[in-house]
Amino acid sequence: MLPRKSKGLQKIQMARVEKANDLLVTFSKRRCGLFTNVSELSILCGVEIAIIVFSRDIKVFSFGHASEENLFNFILFQQL
Predict the structure, then answer these.
(1) Contacts 24+ apart (CB under 8 A), 1-8
(2) In this predicted structure, what is the pLDDT of residue 1?
(3) How far, in whole angstroms, is CA 77 from its chain's centroid?
(4) Of 5, 12, 18, 61, which residue is 20 to 30 A from 26 by alpha carbon distance?
């Protein structure tokens, strides 16, 4: 039997990432995972969800289900 190259899925310690490149990669992967989870929640439960994520460089990423624009208008102006 060949030895394994990796140790498989392991729990990582929650600590701030110090390297700039690693920070960007981690942010990107976790942001995509967060949007996936939000999408699944909205489909499974039949709810309308909006999420806004700000990066360290003040870039804005948003996700909305059914429509981002309608949800943000509802939040800002209390009308749909």
Answers:
(1) none
(2) 64
(3) 25
(4) 5
pTM: 0.65
The residue written with tokens 């994520």 in the block is 53
Nearest C-alpha neighbor of 63 from the set 22, 35, 30, 27: 35
Number of CB atoms found within 10 A of residue 11's CB = 5
Contacts of 63 by beta carbon, 8 Å cutoff, 6+ apart: 35, 38, 39, 49, 50, 51
Q: Which of 53, 6, 58 is nearest to 32 (CA)?
A: 53
Is residue 66 reached through a cis peptide bond, with omega within 30 degrees of 0 on the bond before it?
yes
